[in-house]
Design a protein that fits this description.
Layout: H1 2-51, H2 63-70, H3 72-105, H4 108-119, H5 126-137, H6 142-149, H7 163-188, H8 191-199, H9 204-232, H10 236-241, H11 249-258, H12 263-287, H13 290-294
């Protein structure tokens, strides 16, 4: 018995040494990539954070953060940013969930072919897609011409250069970021569970809400977080389709630097934007667990 215990202890010690050597090996292998990330990502963040803590005279100050929270202009920017981000996320859920559910019920071959059309936008630059929407949504664009010609409206609608156009363009850009994780989660759900519930007397609607929908929530939450966080810092689409009338945080940062040359205020906005994204990810991790959101 003692010899068996001694042998097991020796085996565990050998296994621990092997695991330690393996970790050291992979750490050395990943060291160049880690160093590159530190230089490319973390050093600029530290530099940005330091700029936000100095005023125009170069003295240590929190005036940049005070201005952000006290200025009505910045408060309006935060309000518009959150309104657009929430609206885009909500529309992506309304459009993406039924689409993913339909695709997940098809055969693997058919759904795989149709998923190509979901991925097509990734093959086109955001700038090109935004200009395409600008052509479609302008007063003399295809959409307004079609609505007027069909008699649905008497005069063209103002669909571009406002909040509406920005939301429409961003939904088109962000929708794949919700569809991909949600579709992967739905595809992994065993359809026999829903069929078994129906066979035991449950209605299709009740089986969906009590079985399928709860099991699809990890993918839904992952997509929602991706879309909302990316929308917070989006620049190209609202800058073009907003026509200068819609100012989100990224646009305010750009104008603060290019027009006013105020690096301190722009850095403070950038730090706040980064903190908001990190807080959202932290909250999601606390509530749902990132392993449940992104790992199936």
């Amino acid at each position: 018995m003692n010899m068996t215990a001694i042998g097991e202890g020796a085996n565990r010690a050998i296994l621990a040494r092997l695991q330690s050597r393996e970790r050291q090996f992979f750490l050395k292998l990943a060291a160049p990539a880690i160093l590159g990330i530190m230089i490319v990502v973390f050093l600029p963040i530290l530099w940005l954070s330091s700029l936000s803590l100095f005023d125009a005279a170069g003295d240590w100050s929190t005036a940049n953060y005070a201005r952000v929270f006290q200025s009505p202009l910045y408060q309006k920017t935060f309000h518009v940013t959150f309104i657009i981000s929430i609206s885009v996320t909500a529309f992506c859920v309304l459009l993406g969930y039924p689409l993913c559910y339909w695709l997940s019920r098809l055969s693997p071959r058919t759904s795989g072919i149709l998923m190509v059309f979901v991925l097509v936008p990734f093959w086109t630059a955001v700038l090109v897609r935004t200009y395409a929407w600008l052509v479609l949504l302008q007063r003399n664009g295809i959409i307004n011409q079609g609505l007027v010609a069909s008699g649905i409206i008497d005069e063209p609608l103002q669909l571009a250069h406002n909040l509406t156009g920005s939301i429409i363009g961003m939904v088109h850009v962000m929708l794949p970021f919700l569809v991909l994780p949600l579709y992967a989660t739905m595809r992994a759900i065993d359809g026999d569970l829903v069929r078994a519930a129906i066979g035991l007397g449950s209605s299709p609607r009740e089986a969906f809400w009590r079985i399928f929908f709860p099991m699809s929530l990890p993918g839904l939450f992952a997509g929602v977080i991706l879309v909302f966080v990316l929308s917070l810092g989006f620049y190209v689409t609202p800058a073009l389709l907003g026509g200068g009338r819609v100012q989100m945080l990224a646009q305010r940062i750009e104008s603060t630097i290019t027009i006013y040359a105020n690096w301190g205020a722009a850095s403070a906005l950038g730090v706040i934007l980064l903190v908001m994204a990190l807080v959202l990810i932290w909250a999601a991790n606390r509530v749902f667990g990132l392993d449940k959101l992104f790992v199936r």
